[in-house]
Amino acid sequence: MTSIQKALKSHFGFEKFRSQQQEDVVNAVVKGDRDVFVCMPTGAGKSLCYQLPAVLANGITLVVSPLIALIQDQVDQLQARNIPACSINSKLPAQERRSILEDLERDSPCLKLLYVTPEMLASPSFQPCLSSLSARGLVSRLAVDEAHCEDVVRSLNLRHPLSFSTPVFRSNLRYDVIFRDVLPDAYTHLHAFIKKALGDGPAGQGCGIVYCRTRDGCEEVAHRLTRLGVSARPYHAGLKTADRTEAQSDWMQGKVSAIVATISFGMGVDKPDVRFVAHWNLAKSLASYYQESGRAGRDGLPASCRTYYSSQDRDQIGFLIRKEIARIQKKRGSEKEQDRVAVTDFEAMVAFCEQEACRHATISQFFGDGRPDCAGACDFCRDPRVVRAQLEAAARLSTRTGPAQSREPSGPFGFDPQLYAGGRKGYGFERYDEDSGSDKEDDFENRKKEFGNLFRKQMKMRKGSGVKEVFVPPDADCPLREASSQRIPKLTVKAREHCLSLLQSTLDSHQEAAVLEESSDTRSLAVEMEHEVFRSSKSANLYKASVLKRVAELKKGADGVTSPPVGGGENSSHGDGLTDSKPDPSSSSSSSSCGDFLGFTPASQVYSLKRKRVGAGLRGSSNPFQTAAELLSREHDVSGGGAGAWSGAGRDAQTADAPCRPGSPEAGEGRKRKTESADSPPPPAPAPPRL
């Protein structure tokens, strides 16, 4: 007995290899003088082809595998056989990661197989460890598992590799198709199929898988089967991790007869006594269907593979595939070969179900193999009349889809690279399932990311196109103050100049109406008013609204707006832009001084005549700000600052009832006398004039 055969029995418990080809592959890998490329169908024993040589080699075999779940399953199996194996991945606890890295830093590590994902292999955190192992000559082999792509030979730079391939035909699998549309009760039919399939195996042994397209479908089918007497558990990404683990564990231990799952289940699960695989929904491609159905009968005993076909599934899945193709084409702006392949593969699956032909022959021809000897291993070869009767009944209910054309093998060694999960041209059909089977991203994180993208897109649409406007600088003779300032977004110099001209024209019209003094410089006054509005506004809309408010107040000047002085600065008192350069104790700043003497007040102005509550810094205006000069002047007025504070109170009292010109000093004085006479004692008599 050779060392290879001894290791096969002592470490893996097998007396002999599963096939002669598997033994040839192991011998070639152990010899190690050439690279080896292995293409075998599901259940042919590909993993053993690199695991057994790893046990015999000095050093570490680095295994690259796409899924963490697949890696963990193989690591658990190896550790159960006392073979030193571990994995470094993103879900590994920190303490366990440190322990593994410490072992890898030793001169003679205990590990025999180290599993990593492609992302971990390329990560900067793992590169130093890999470089250290390579520099010390501790990497004995590199194995790439589940290499579903055509360019694997070119990517790995394989030089004249030995190629091993196996025909896809498996004589122990019995295929049949049932048209669900013509069944009176599909769930009862599925229950009978499961009972019959499990009855073929030894008593108390055997189990099966029912594949569904959606999570809701998994829940519904599992519930119906349980009610009919079959112990079934659902398995999908919507369940908690603990519930999924429990469901898989019960199924692996034989406590559950059927596990109802999405297509992600079964990847890397090595359970030999799977007696049936039923597809409750149509698979996305014939390649995917072959891989999923191939999880049955790995022990070489007979197993049943059934598809429940319906026109509704066909139409829905076809629509999803075309929609996804259109989305990707719109994103990249061009059409690629994989777009056409996606549709062709789905049409091949439809043809597999609808045509009158041997099921095994259809699969073999799809992958480029010759026609096998079915020998009654499919429903058509057993009884073609039953298949024809189903097709005729289904034709009355739905429109049949034309058969798809098979294509020639296109792989690097004369085989179809989509032999397993659809390969690179498989177009990622798992994205159409609610459970993608990927351990890289959690389902909740995906939904959270999608919502964030949608929210940002909507907010961007609300803000506009986002094109930044170019600021046009002012002319050399621009009269505006701070004309080059861009403190208010989207406010142009042209808009400010327009507002300035609007203010000036209003002031000019009031000067003609004698509201302003003849000596007033309306140009300078308009510039100061515009600048004050510019400094107090934070947006272009608020700026324009404030300017219109000033214009409206100026137009009401005939109703009592006093003459706004030229200039602003620190002596400005009113926050609305109509400011006093300095408080005049001889006149009032009330905007409705003449309303008391004209005898009529419009209803719209009644509220403006109401006395406002005076708070800190509030002088009855909309702006609570007051300068220090105003506060001192007001304190002087209230405390009775001598004859100067009431210098106008003793002049001709009879003029209080006389008509007054709006905005004139006499109007202000008359209103003050009338107000103070009712609420306060008369002011002291003015001092006699000096001679």
Automatic annotation (TrEMBL):
It catalyses: Couples ATP hydrolysis with the unwinding of duplex DNA by translocating in the 3'-5' direction. GO terms for molecular function: 3'-5' DNA helicase activity; ATP binding; four-way junction helicase activity; nucleic acid binding. Transmembrane segments: none annotated. The keyword Protein biosynthesis does not apply. Residues 397-417, 557-595, 615-691 are annotated as: Disordered. Its EC number is 5.6.2.4. One of its GO terms (biological process) is double-strand break repair via homologous recombination. Residues 398-408 have a biased composition (Polar residues). It is an enzyme of class 5 (isomerase). Residues 189-347 form the Helicase C-terminal domain. This is DNA 3'-5' helicase. It comes from Anguilla anguilla (European freshwater eel). The lineage of its organism: Eukaryota, Metazoa, Chordata, Craniata, Vertebrata.
